[in-house]
Automatic annotation (TrEMBL):
Protein localization: Cell membrane; Membrane
UniProt similarity note: Belongs to the ABC-2 integral membrane protein family.
InterPro entries: ABC2_TM, ABC2_TM_bact-type, ABC_2_transport, Nod_factor_ABC_transporter
Membrane topology: Multi-pass membrane protein
Name of the featured protein: Transport permease protein
Keywords in alphabetical order: Antibiotic resistance, Cell membrane, Membrane, Transmembrane, Transmembrane helix, Transport
Ranges annotated as spanning the membrane: 21-45, 107-128, 134-157, 224-242
Ranges where the ABC transmembrane type-2 domain occurs: 21-249
Source lineage: Bacteria, Bacillati, Actinomycetota, Actinomycetes, Micromonosporales
Keyword Cell inner membrane: no
Keyword set includes Transmembrane: yes
Length: 252
């Protein structure tokens, strides 16, 4: 095993004590979302959206949002705890572990958590008949790529602040608007042109677009490659930024 895997193992051992509660929420949240938005709101959207039912159109957006919100949830308060409260990062840095090992192992655990949430959402969506193609399985790697694009830069942000009040600001003024205006609940073409380009610049819209093409069995075209590369660029840039911020905190 590499040092990063040992760090991931540490987080998995801790997760062993709390996994039951998270599994319940991972199943209940998709179920309630399907009933509330897909079935409830969808009943009022007569004719569907872009030739499919509102439930089928909205589900890939909800799955992508779940990946982003799960990644951000794991890269905010848990990272803050490792720096400020429990100080696990400092204990790991005192061991023969590099900053890259500490960051890589924790990011790997974050991706594991997102993978389980996306898989649970995908299972519930299949039971509701919201998936139109076997290519829906591609949502799993898309969700991981999207999660890395969100978790890495947010971990860098968390490592740069000293109070969790700044994390609440991030959720209110960045995460919530991004979730509302990235094509999850309505096409971004309905937005004014300025806001539309803001949505295109954010990683969530690209994850939503790729996930929607997968679940509906549509040909994403050559732009899918560029969208995947764009998400990868977010993840790589976030990694280097997080590594720099972690190093400034852990290495004297």
């Amino acid at each position: 095993m590499t040092p990063s895997l040992y760090v991931m193992e540490y987080h998995l051992v801790n997760y062993r004590r709390t996994w039951r509660a998270s599994v319940l929420s991972s199943l209940v949240l998709p179920l309630l979302t399907m009933l509330g938005f897909g079935v409830g709101v969808g009943a009022y959207v007569t004719g569907g959206v872009e030739g499919v039912s509102y439930l089928q159109w909205m589900v890939p957006g909800l799955i992508a949002t779940t990946a982003v919100q799960g990644a951000i949830g794991e890269s905010t308060w848990p990272v803050m705890s490792c720096f400020e409260w429990v100080k696990i990062y400092f204990a790991q840095a005192a061991a023969p572990l590099r900053v890259a090992d500490i960051l890589g192992g924790h990011l790997a655990f974050m991706l594991f958590r997102v993978f389980t949430s996306v898989a649970a959402f995908l299972l519930i969506a299949a039971l509701f008949g919201a998936l139109r193609s076997v290519w829906a399985l591609a949502v799993l790697p898309i969700g991981l790529l999207l999660a890395l694009a969100a978790a890495a830069p947010v971990a860098a942000y968390t490592a740069s602040v000293s109070s969790d009040s700044y994390l609440a600001i991030l959720l209110r003024f960045a995460v919530l608007p991004m979730s509302l205006f990235s094509g999850v609940f309505f096409p971004v073409e309905s937005l004014p042109e300025v806001l539309r380009w803001v949505a295109y610049a954010l990683p969530l819209w690209h994850g939503v677009d790729l996930s929607r093409a997968a679940t509906l069995g549509l040909d994403p075209g050559p732009e899918a490659v560029w969208q995947a590369l764009y998400l990868m660029a977010w993840g790589i840039a976030g990694w280097f930024l997080a590594h720099w911020r972690y190093r400034s905190r852990l290495v004297i």
